[in-house]
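Sanity check. The docking grid for heme-as depends on where the pocket ends up, so I'm generating a full predicted complex first rather than guessing from homology. Inputs follow.
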Amino acid sequence: MEFSKGLKRVLLLELLIPMLLLVLGVYLGLIQVLSRAGVIRGDSIWSLKYYEGLTLHGVVNAIVVTTFFAVAFGNAVMVYYLKNKIKMTWVWVSFWVMLIGTLLAAWAILTGNATVLYTFYAPLKAHPLFYIGVALLVVGSWIAFFNWIPMYLRFRKEHPDKKTPIAVVGTLANFVIWFIATVPVAYEVLVILLPWSLGYVTEINVMLTRVLFWFFGHPLVYFWLLPAYIMYYAFLPKLVGGKIYSDFAARLVFFLFMIFSIPVGLHHQFAEPSINPNLKLLHAVFTFGVALPSLITAFSVAASLEMGAHSRGYKGLMSWVYRQPYFDKNNYLVAYLIVGLLIFIVGGATGVLNASYSMNNLVHNTGFLPGHFHLTVAGPVILAIFGMTIYMYSNLTGKEVKFKSLNVAVPYMWALGLTFFSSGLMVGGLLGEPRRTNLGISYTNPDSPLFQSDWQITTAITAIGGTIMFIAALSYFAVLIATMASKSKGAVAFNFPTSEVYHDEKNISFVKNFAPWILVAVVIILIAYVPTVKEALDNTAGGALPYLPTNPVPITP
Ligand code: HAS
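Predicted complex below; grid placement will be based on this.
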């Protein structure tokens, strides 16, 4: 399909701007591991303080890159599969609003005015422009979503007997989750944090801000993940010569995410006061519910891989494991996607461990947590983003991917680094190593009275892993830049490698419409969150003063 020039231009910007920011993001990741291991000792490097760097690393990698990518990918999916015209004015408005928001937030962080980490809840306080920037980034993504809804409705009207393409179902489900999840955090930012940051109020309900943040904070992780899931269902089977195992199961997965990904936020707050433990248990139970669509995906995608291996003539029980085009330079998306899936087996299992109410006591706020979440967001999510960015770039520009061998090696290098990185963090975490701490000037510094010798080896392993990941990222950027610098072969039709379906169930009314699922989602959210918010309001006495991460004394208004 031929995309218009304007659409191509905006897609390229939405893909490449985050990649530019990611250069900074991965560099700051390297600084993190080196600081934790004590290779770098000091509270700042090139005048960027430890927590400024950590905030920038989290905000850029986890919020900005993922949001820009989800919007770019969503724009392309909608136009490609619905074959409907997209309103370009709103595509551009969405892009500019997101960009301005990003620049404002980046300014606040880089000038040391927003060392609040990517989980920007109180009592840490940021400059008003940080909050405005984050709000604009979110609003920009809403605009993109609202632009797709009429396209979808038109498709349904014009093709009443056709099924909505799975990639479209996935994209819309993802943005429904995103929209529901971001409304409370928009309230938190605009109604609570912004007036506080502007100095109009001096005290706020910290527990409420944390509850509202985590209402958003967990679905946020599925907002990162679902574009990868769309690729696992809609593209990967085709790439390996297989088919989507079951059309019904694929649709069900995205709808299940819609109902289970939000009412689980308290699993980030098991250790916090003010909230009834029974409510925490309820959220823990729903958390096991949200693992369900991933477990269905594990079996469905494995079946697609098996069909792929068999269709290419390989027989035997384990041929689906051994006989995949893992190193096919011209089919490099396979490597990016399968390596992501393999990493997610451990990322998902550690998530289930975190969710276990009593077990969480052991790992909460330790290195185990970044160990877990790098196996998710820095595993399947970033590898899907890397692979699809280069794929879409090459398709949109008609340029052939350069350094093909290096390109296909990137996911394996990344996975090797991640194995060391996350193992170091998780073992360290089980030994009590805290997360978000400049260990190099304290616990891993032999000259410090706080020195913990048993954290030296784990932080060293983490640093080795982080360094390998950094090299993998540099290799990826080299591939991207070389591709960008090459000559275009002229306009090519844009193409997503779309999978066929093996079990194409006819009667799918259960997974046809969004409305009933949205209704169920809202009911479950109300059950999970009305009493939680009430607890936060009732059990918090007075307000709390703001703190800076560098000082245990509250900032006086
Ligand atoms: Fe998590 C904390 C629980 C998934 C990200 N998580 C975090 C944080 C982040 C994060 C960023 O319950 C830290 C937040 C902070 O800063 O404080 N997480 C879960 C659970 C899941 C889960 C139950 N997390 C994710 C995903 C993320 C992510 C996805 C990002 C994208 N997480 C928690 C909990 C905490 C937490 C607690 C808070 C802990 C605390 O104390 O603070 C589930 O969704 C996981 C289900 C996944 C599976 C795996 C399925 C496997 C698949 C691969 C199959 C492979 C195949 C390939 C087919 C059950 C689909 C085979 C191929 C061959 C060739 C063999």
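Relevant for the grid: The chain has a mean pLDDT of 95.
Also worth noting: The beta strands are 44-45, 48-49, 244-246, 501-503.
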